[in-house]
Amino acid sequence: MFSKHFFHFSINNFKNVEKISKTAILRFYSTAKWSYVHGASALPLMYKTTGQILEESVDKYGDRTAFIFPKQDVRKNYREFYSDVKSLARGLLALGLRTGDRVGMWGPNTYEWVVAQFASSLAGLIFVTVNPAYEQDELAYALHKVGVRCLIASNSYRNRSYYELLTGLLPGLPKGDKNELNFGKGVWTYDEISNGDDSKLDKKIRELNTFVQADDPANILFTSGTTGRPKGATLSHFNIVNNAYFIGKRMNYDKQNSVINAQNWREWPEATTTVICCPPPLYHCFGCIIGSLASVLHGATCVFPSTAFDAKMSLSSIHDEKCNSLYGTPTMFVDMLSNSNFDKYDYTSLRTGIMAGATCPIELCMDVIHKMHMKNFTLLYGTTENSPGTFQTTMLCELDDRVSTVGKVHDHVEAKIIDEHDHMLPIETTGELCIRGHCVMLNYWNDERQTNEVIGRDGWYKTGDLASIDANGRLKIVGRRKDLIIRGGENIYPAEIEQFLHTHPKVCDVQVIGVPDKRLGEEVCAWIRLKEGETCGEQEIRDYCMGKITYFKIPRYIVFKHQSDFPVTVTGKIQKYKMREVAVKELNLSI
């Protein structure tokens, strides 16, 4: 599983929104509320590092179970986890790594992953998460881009030898039989590095814990690459600690004296520890910030069911560990609910959870509530560049809020909707969502141009997402600005059509894209995955649309696909640009 190999090297070893006239805008501003919200809060921001958070939690929750990895048969309480973290931190410092050096983690969800995450912080290093699905070229790009000095890697992932890929990049690495690795200059086993016991290094760790500041970089997470080459979003300790803190608060993971919490916790006894089932990948902020970091900060137990998402393993982990909170993307929830083993397990321990990464169709929402007992689950919106969460529903909000919006803005965060001229728009008007506050990343590592394209001098981050804010401050995501379909001058938002088609009784999943058309510029194309055992034709889908959605939104092209046909990132995000490439070729369309 996790061969626990270390690679220490120098990087030198590498060979269109709807247009509104200014006059109309000014006239409307005089009579309507602007699309601006601010998460005013009496709760102060936390000025602490990840390492300081861990030490505080160890003092508070020492004997409580911190992490469970069923696939590895690993179960560690907070004291045991901290001991492992300190051991690895000593080993990293013993390698000669210095404050601010980048440590890469290349592997699937394993216990060693979360140990490395917190050990890097204790050692004053910047932790770089590397997509476990990267091939050689992608790996070289990522490591070179951020100047990784030390790489911690699994032996393999999905039958791919990591070491074999690395020897192609680093000719100096010792070579041998691919099933029997040689260790020499620059290569160590994980155990060799993490078993050191040097009291001088303990003193160094204590010094670093006060020397490293909350504003210093903590993590570099690569964007999912849904539109091309990934960028390294640099997040500070201040970014990720506060994001983890306020997400946990929204989830009521540690109770405060408020009416809402009191109402919710009547059904959640005082002695109950939050036990989170977290199938999302650790490489992504959903796994390592909303998952492991928020769990440690709030004294929860976090269960990572499998190395990569496995619906059955997730369901069995909920059952075995009596999890009361479940995380996942809508696709993950669909796969769990449709798994043939679903009825074999007990989900009555579940109460809440987080669904993020895409919109939640009402049918899925109802299934999650009634079949998985998650009546208090929440929807969360965010981006990697925002550490990640910015908007979230509450545990007690109405059902309609959870299917039509992603809730209200997080504490101490500002949000606004703008047009193509950067002018703020009135409420209920679709435009680009912008975010400002403690959550906004420091920069894209070593990429000033792209950083300046998305973060203005006033601190506003342009998300690239089309959205609207209603009179109650709730956010509705319409889709990506780059995914907007313009058909004969009409703006069409794919998410709107996707939400509608999800109501068809035979449809399991659907993605809508724009494809080229000589006359209209673009036409609507729907990729549909049917529920197991169902059959359906194109005309049946079109007939279902007639009279229910505007004629120009009805898909011109309808193709039925299997789950494996949808191109996705390792985090499960749909890569629509790849869908377009496939559709153009399969439909024989000219660009």
Automatic annotation (TrEMBL):
One of its GO terms (biological process) is fatty acid metabolic process. Residues 54-445 form the AMP-dependent synthetase/ligase domain. Its EC number is 6.2.1.2. Pfam families: AMP-binding, AMP-binding_C. Residues 496-573 form the AMP-binding enzyme C-terminal domain. It catalyses: octanoate + ATP + CoA = octanoyl-CoA + AMP + diphosphate; a medium-chain fatty acid + ATP + CoA = a medium-chain fatty acyl-CoA + AMP + diphosphate. Keywords: Ligase. PROSITE patterns: AMP_BINDING. The keyword Ligase applies. GO terms for molecular function: medium-chain fatty acid-CoA ligase activity. It comes from the Eukaryota. InterPro entries: AMP-bd_C, AMP-bd_C_sf, AMP-binding_CS, AMP-dep_synth/lig_dom, ANL_N_sf. Acyl-CoA synthases catalyze the initial reaction in fatty acid metabolism, by forming a thioester with CoA. Has some preference toward medium-chain substrates. Plays a role in adipocyte differentiation. Belongs to the ATP-dependent AMP-binding enzyme family. This is Medium-chain acyl-CoA ligase ACSF2, mitochondrial.
